[in-house]
Write a structure and sequence with these properties.
Elements (H helix, E strand, L loop, with lengths): L3 H19 L33 E2 L10 E4 L2 E3 L12 E3 L2 E4 L5 H10 L41 H10 L7 H11 L20 E2 L18 H6 L11 H11 L10 E2 L3 E3 L2
Parallel strand pairs: 6-7
Antiparallel strand pairs: 1-2, 2-5, 3-4, 5-8
Helix pairs in contact: 1-6
Length: 269
């Protein structure tokens, strides 16, 4: 298990690598999910099969689940090229929550599933910082209940989504949703316009520890992608993507970080 100091060192290494690789082409606002502009502006018609904006629909209950957005089928260009160059992947249509899971929603989950309460969870599945901002197992503490829940490990996030008959989105699905929806897809736990790299909310994906390459080459080193192979990026100016992929590569499934949340997804009917 990494110590807080070692995790911080990993995070700083990822940021330093991202800065070095992205050079002078840096977005005006540096945020965990920052992009210079939406790839597909929401005020312009998109080519088929993305002719319409994602349509939200109501969830099953007010305390569990969330509004879901429909993301149409389409192509996704992996951030890193394969050995034969850049090649798009076909992504089937899917549904994804319009916002990350809130503290109130996760409280409802731990009430119904005692094994995931802070005092009962096994250390194999969550480090000691799990829900550390809560006052106790069933008390959210001072932060607003409507804020995104953080300090939740991958194991608990996966269990939460499964309890709703859903799942965590894959990295490709998460990245495609960001491309389709634009910057409004991401959230921050900061107050007002002061959102920055520290305040921005990162999110778990189902396959956070695997980098989706165009060729799917299992022999590629994750470390070399971030510091030694910047030329393999399909868009070297996408500073936000450098940060996302480097951050994911440093995670372990039991990590419970104060700026790491999650949202659920499901395959389209």
């Amino acid at each position: 298990m990494f110590t807080a100091k070692r995790r911080a060192r990993w995070g700083m290494l990822g940021v330093v690598c991202a800065l070095a690789l992205s050079g002078a082409a840096r977005p005006r606002q540096v945020a965990a999910h920052a992009q210079d502009a939406p790839r597909e502006p929401l005020n312009e018609p998109a080519p088929a099969p993305e002719a319409a904006d994602p349509a939200p629909h109501a969830a099953a209950s007010s305390t569990r689940g969330a509004l879901m957005m429909s993301i149409p089928a389409g192509d996704y260009l992996p951030f890193y090229k394969g050995k034969s160059g850049a090649r798009s992947l076909v992504v089937p249509a899917f549904e994804i929550a319009a916002a990350p899971v809130t503290r109130e929603e996760f409280l409802s989950f731990v009430r119904d599933n005692p094994r995931w309460r802070r005092s009962r969870v096994g250390r194999l599945f969550a480090e000691s910082s799990y829900l550390s901002d809560w006052s106790d197992d069933l008390n959210l503490g001072a932060s607003p209940a409507s804020r995104a829940v953080t300090g939740v490990p991958w194991f608990a996030a996966k269990a939460y989504c499964a309890s709703l008959g859903q799942r965590l989105p894959s990295t490709v699905e998460w990245e495609r949703a960001l491309k389709v929806v634009g910057p409004a897809f991401v959230e921050t736990n900061a107050e007002g316009p002061r959102a920055n790299l520290v305040a921005s909310l990162w999110e778990w994906t189902a396959d956070f520890n695997s980098v989706p390459l165009a060729d799917g080459d299992p022999n590629d080193s994750v470390a070399s992608l971030f510091c030694g192979a910047g030329a393999r990026a399909t868009d070297a100016t996408d500073y936000g993507a450098f940060l996302r992929y480097s951050f994911r590569s440093s995670l372990k499934a039991d990590f419970a970080l104060k700026n790491l949340g999650f949202r659920c997804a499901e395959s389209a009917l």
